Amino acid sequence: MKRNRVIAGNWKMNMTQEGAKALMQDVIKWMPKNLPSDVDVVVCVPFTLLNFVNDMIKGTRIKLGAQNMSWAEKGAFTGEISASQLIETGVSHVIIGHSERREMFNETCETVNKKIKYALANNLTPIFCIGESLEQFEKGETNATVARQVKDGLNGLTEDELTKVVVAYEPIWAIGTGKTASPQDAQNTIAFIRAELLKNVAEQMPILYGGSMNAENAKDLLSQNDIDGGLIGGASLKAHDFLCIAGSTI
What we know:
Helix content: 25-40%
Radius of gyration: 17 Å
Structural class: alpha/beta
Low-confidence stretches: none
């Protein structure tokens, strides 16, 4: 089975309506017309911009993503947002377990697992993030770290549910630092994730690279056998760079 490829932009806590309008106008205008049909282009924007961007991308092939969500449907959860609230704004994808959520906001593998299950129950596509710190990388603990995160994060999912998850490998030491894993190192880790951890569903699950992919290194990274796309941070805020990355899938 051929895997879909995914180019997902993570705007993080950036952009107001004015900037979002200018960026998305350029992205929509200059989106490569020959982009393969198996490539999903997703923009994961701040909650305040979901409705605004959704209105802009109607009638295009661009999909809307959120950067986080609760594992609960409703209740006394101040500051949280539910799947039904996201769906109402047009969201189809949601980032879950990003390293910044884990490190700064005490996200745990247990809450990540609950959120993935809740997203799937509501027909949202989870972009499930895993990755090692610089210390773990330097100690040679990359495989052990991602193995633990995959096991805990996907615990209890059926094979059918697993095929609906997108995995994003993001070495933490390469996020926002300008550093990036070499294409071969990224390929080796993602191949390990696919072959050793995902087993029966390995060939159906897209696995993205999420460590400072940009217009310059995208072609080399995306040419690797097991890298099916990218979770793009800073480069997704520049139309030219984001479209260069998307164009690297052609």
